[in-house]
Amino acid sequence: MSSNSLQLSTPVQRYKDPIALQAHRPLLLQIKERRSLSFSALWIFVFGINLVTSATMQLLPACLLLALVAGFSSARHAPQETHAYLDVNIDNVKKMILEYRPEEELEKSEDMMSDLAARMWHETIKHAESEPVTLDPIPGVATSLGLTELVKAVVAAGLAETLSGPGPFTVFGPSNEAFNNLPDWEKKAIKDVKVLADILKFHVLAGKVMSSDLSNDLVATTVEGKKLRVNLYKKKAGLVATAQCSPIDLNKVDNAASNGVIHVLNRVMFPPSGTIVEAVSKCPAFKTLTKAVQVAGLVDTLNGEGPFTLFAPTDKAFAKLPPGALDKLIANPTELAKVLTYHVVAGTLCSPGLESSTAKTVEGQDVKVVVSGAGVTVNNAKVIAPDASVTNGVVHGIDTVLLPPTFELP
């Protein structure tokens, strides 16, 4: 059943056309057969005044209330097997039920009670439709969601007025725990208002993007013009969604605001520092890897569109190779390229989306991924620095160089 429909419980009979209500104001309607207590109560309500004396009139409202409650209660608790379920849509409702007879013909109608019930129902719907729905702008909705750390950060960065503007915006809002779990050096970094503002703007997309619009490897544009990558993973335990490898809380998505929508994140996102090659070359822990990529002629490949996942050996990982092995690899670019491409997997494999399995590398052979309470391992290497998001994928730092099964060190 589609998200913009709901179930209508009707007694036994099926109508020629399915009937429905508006998706944004779903109403659950249960209609009993004409002989049911609900219509009997309605009959009493319409004609009771003409059947009682003025003395009885004073007692009628309370009696009718009890009769109506009893009637609708009976309808609500009717045996389940006597009901059929239909999708409902407001246009078909108006076409089938609300095209009742003209006022002057009402009293002549053999279906007068059904027509009158339809009138009353129609008036109820019109009344509900006339009630305005007021939504707060994004900062107000963030407050109502309990995202107090995010709201404080938005105010500190001077973005409250912007995020209260017309928009529309899509905000990936980190939870309080996400802010509290930042490493000390990152907490220190975001005390700089400019740095904080840049990070927060990376959480904001121009336009309204609902969770149903997300797809794997979707690249969206932030308000600053930067690229943000969304990934979806179908794990045995269920669907996992990430934005820049930060888990999206799927129980807290599509929180509507007057100027957009908020999706709650379980980690703070940081803007990528470039492609795989650019990011690795900027990190002091990957000097050997940077040189090896250049020697093997893989710079253009790893600067390409991708996306790729690189399991990146640190300098300490290369130092664990047998004596002289690294120098021999550097002297043989073809063999070096085989080793390095065995560290690369096509696609974006963020750690929240990983589960124990195998993954085919660009070199052609598989690596074995094991996810446990102790962390993530790839073959015999431990992932020690996961989820460094880059513009063309993700980098995971590992503590051991991976060697293809059929490869022999020179």
Automatic annotation (TrEMBL):
Gene Ontology CC annotations of this record: extracellular matrix; extracellular space
GO terms for MF: cell adhesion molecule binding
Gene Ontology terms describing biological process: cell adhesion; extracellular matrix organization
Pfam families named among the record's database cross-references: Fasciclin
Membrane-crossing segments per the record: 42-72
Sorted UniProt keywords: Membrane, Transmembrane, Transmembrane helix
Annotated InterPro entries: Adhesion/Biosynth-related (IPR050904), FAS1_dom_sf (IPR036378), FAS1_domain (IPR000782)
FAS1 domain residues: 134-269, 273-402
Domain of life per record: Eukaryota
Full protein name: Transforming growth factor-beta-induced protein ig-h3-like
Organism the protein comes from: Plakobranchus ocellatus
